[in-house]
Amino acid sequence: MNCSAFQFNFGGFRFSSALLALVLSIGGVGCGDPGASPSSTGKNCRTVSQVLGETTVCDRPKKVAVLDVHSLDLLLSLGEQPAGVVTPLPISTNDTSRVQRPDIAIPYLGDKVTTQPTYLGSLGRPPSLEVLSQSRPDLIVGESWQIQGGAGALMAKLAPTLPLAPRSERGNWRKNLRALAQALGDEALADRAIARYRRQIDAARRDLKSVIKAHPRVLILTGESMNKGVLFVLTGEGYIGEVLESIGFDVVEPPGPIRNFIPLSIEILPELNQADLIFVLGYTSAAIQTIETEDLTNTKSLLETKDALVNQQVSRIRTDWQNNPIAQSLKASKSDRVYFHTFYEWNVLNGPLGAELILTQLRESLLDN
Description:
By secondary structure, the protein is of the alpha/beta class. The chain has 2 domains: 32-196, Nitrogenase molybdenum iron protein domain (Rossmann fold); 208-367, Nitrogenase molybdenum iron protein domain (Rossmann fold), CATH 3.40.50.1980. The protein has helices at residues 17-25, 69-77, 102-105, 129-135, 149-158, 172-184, 188-207, 209-214, 239-246, 299-323, 325-328, 331-334, 343-347, 352-367; strands at residues 8-10, 13-15, 46-50, 53-57, 64-66, 84-87, 118-122, 139-143, 161-164, 217-223, 230-234, 250-251, 261-265, 277-282, 338-342. It is globular and about 60 Å long.
């Protein structure tokens, strides 16, 4: 399978990790051969077990480069800041050596970035190895499919590399979080982040108790459109299913062998009609005009842009759903309990901060309805 063949757009920005994220990452499939673990010299060396083998890290990394937003979610959840980032949205300012406005270039996470990290590129393109080399990182973190093959071998010559397990499989975010904390030399950071996650889960369970009691069964779908007749069901074996089940929902799944995602013919939807609530996660592979980020200088325009990005991702699948007689025959549709969010928001961050976003949107959708 040629990973470079997959392309996706968030907010109209084409990046090859997209359908890779949708098809490969949610299915737990990797690409390429595992890269060799780099060697390090220094004091306080430790060996970190990771999905492709082992990584040796010495001393405490001070400059961490992250190659995707999952890695950034984990790093920020541990209370650390990135020295270099690959951003979801491309930087279109005169000076691209630094991410001047992380709050714009990295939706939903950027407002937690307090530095101006080195700009390593945007999702959909390989990170700039030249810039990565010039930035002299102490640790490089990314999903396993990013740190493999020839590029992974080159990265390993620059700094210890930490490839992460497929982010959207159930429980992998914890494994990745603990591996990163160990690489940073402080495993207690992971304990604290997981404890915060559990408190957020407990709070959401209390807030949504009456809703869950009345409407306990949820169906999670994702797709670009319904014209091709196929959607994907996200199951309890995945990250989103884990979050929803943790607060008390029952995740509806098709019969048969369960993976964390399952292709589903639209004609089979009535067989899942026991779902009280349906969450549809939209995405699009259609290119639109690049947003000039330097023009977004105030909170109002930033929020409007985020809304535009969301609408661009969900508008097609929402329209298809509303016009599809099979979809409209479901009891969740008839009772107006179908909710549309973006695949990016719910299943690309895949860490403690991503869970916080899901829980916030659940409250907004379910408590205001």
